[in-house]
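Hi D.,

Good news: the full-assembly prediction came through. Inputs first.
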Amino acid sequence: MNATAGKLLRPGGPDERRAAVLAWMVVIQALCALFFIGDVVFDLYAGDGQAPGHLWLEGFVALVLVFGLGVLIVELRQLLARMERVTASLMAARGEMAEVIEAFFSDWGLTPAERDVALMILKGFDNESIAGIRGRAVGTIRAQSAAIYGKAGVDGRTQLLSLFMEELLAEPE
Amino acid sequence: MSMNSGGRPGARKYRVWDPLVRITHWGVALGVLLNAALTDPEGTLHEQVGYVVLGLVVLRLLWCIVGPRMARFAAFPPSPAAALAHVRDMLGGDRAVHLSHNPLGALMAYNLWLTLLVLSITGIMMGTVAFFGVEWVEEVHEAAYGWLMVSVALHVGGVLFDQWRTGVPLVRAMIDGRKAVARDRPVK
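Then the structure:
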């Protein structure tokens, strides 16, 4: 039943990989910055007569490192926030989709058994698999799907699906 | 109507730990393991590992301010009162699952961070001219080390206990970032 669900946000998706790369960059660059700044501070205290230009250069490099780190952190933060938003709206859409389906089923007056079968048809199972899952004969499922199509006023699986797609893709009034 | 969203049957998955949280967590764990068991306490490798651990902890603390919701201080404020309430809830058979740290786990996180900071700072002090060979600094470093070992044991024990109590595979959550929560359990 999970074969078709959650493809968009599966682990290892492109967003997730990008976030992982960014996080590694942040960690490694933070450690580099720490090392480099520590080195500059050490030089400053040791003060073994290096040219002042050298210190300025090192200070500048340290500044650039820290600035780059800041940019990476902001970038990662925004990416994670976007992933969170997508998850939230997908959850909301799923909830509303469930309500839409429920409304149609009630409207057609499906029996509880027909509801289960209709839901599995929507999820893309064929009659044989539905029979296997529900522990009924294929003939029973065939009869139930015929009843569902009749009540919904469609002539088959594809039209049943397109009823819901139409509802999703319709222009808002 | 069951709209399963993947994973174990009957479990909802929540993305809770972002990659930065996971990398710093396992980085610190590795650093502690190295410095506790493998490196020579007098050697430079011990010092360098210590600096890396300090850097990771500071980065994680920064992330507690600018990071996403679950990683922030606000998601798990240090509160002994909340921890006590959590213990009462557990004894009362409350089945709710916390998405971020539970209040007891939050106290442990703060305890571990503070202990690591004390360890790093006294460690750095021991390497400076001003504090080299000063006895109390070494004693604090030793004491913090002892406390860290106790804390790590409690931390691991706590994780295993909570995993058993709530059925949420917590170690896995720190690896792939997702908590799988059984459908019949409310989340906080």
